[in-house]
Amino acid sequence: AARKEMERKSRLEWERQRMQELSSQKSRLLE
Q: What is residue 31's three-state secondary structure?
């Protein structure tokens, strides 16, 4: 169960990083 929790956490982290990268790209395009 612990490993599943870790996988879920890492996936959430990855999603968050990807969103940040996408938003930074968007802001660069808008400038």
A: coil
Instruction: Read off the tokens for 6.
Output: 């870790």
Give the pTM.
0.62
Cα(26)–Cα(19) distance, integer angstroms: 10
Neighbours of 17 (CB within 10 A): 10
pLDDT in tens, 1-31: 899 999 999 999 999 999 999 999 999 988 7
Sign of the dihedral through C-alpha 3, 5, 6, 7: positive
